[in-house]
Amino acid sequence: MSGPAIDSGGGLVRLRLDIAYDGTEFAGWAVQAGQRTVAGVIDEALSTVFRTPVVVRAAGRTDTGVHATGQVAHVDVPEDALPHAYPRTPRPGDGEFLPLVRRLSRFLPADVRVLDVARAAPGFDARFSALRRHYVYRLSTAPYGVEPQEARYVTAWPRPLDVDAMNEASRKLLGLHDFAAFCRHREGATTIRDLQRLDWTSEGTRVTAHVTADAFCWSMVRSLVGALLKVGEDRRDSAWCASLLTAERRSSDFAAAPPQGLTLVGVDYPPDDQLEARTKVTRDLRVVD
Hints:
single chain; ten-stranded mixed beta sheet; 20% helix; alpha+beta
């Protein structure tokens, strides 16, 4: 069997990576000096395989302790480094990058997996081409807390929650708004976002929030959940969360929900022929009409 097809013309080949990780032992996605991060261990593994330094870029830079089952990233690899990803004797039926997925499984720690690798379409950028990100936040109101096998991924909540009230409050937050009250401040970063889905379901003692937006600013999902939990406990009324949208800075009236209940479950992209246009739109500063 022949090796992988290599792009002609020299330069770099962009690869798309689909990634899952348990965020418990990571200090978030982004590389930080002296910290164990998801991007850090993936960069190290990829650089080892390709025998040259490479840097991975993600659709969403998750916080410390936050998980992912549907993270998407890209990496630019020199054309002449691509053959290093393949064994000398490929297995029959292997796709172009399945050998790379197998090799990465040996270099990566058990709490992070590259699920798939593909040649990225022209114009693809994992962060700026994305249409929306999907998160799920899971809580348990069981009197005993959380069952041991789920304790790393579900937040124990010691008080009953009024899911109907939380849904009523959530609906008032949907749309394009400045979510400064729900975001940790980052100099020069916009807090204007289009919140497209925010709703709650309850099944037995499991309470789950589904949250979708075009993008999220720093700590936004956990802050939204934390504020809505106050409504669910009947400590605030359903209009209170919407009233916070007039704030210019992060509100001190509530705490962000703990990180372990939060998982990035998916990222949506437009058709390949619309990727470049989407990137240009995303890079523009968001403003509220």
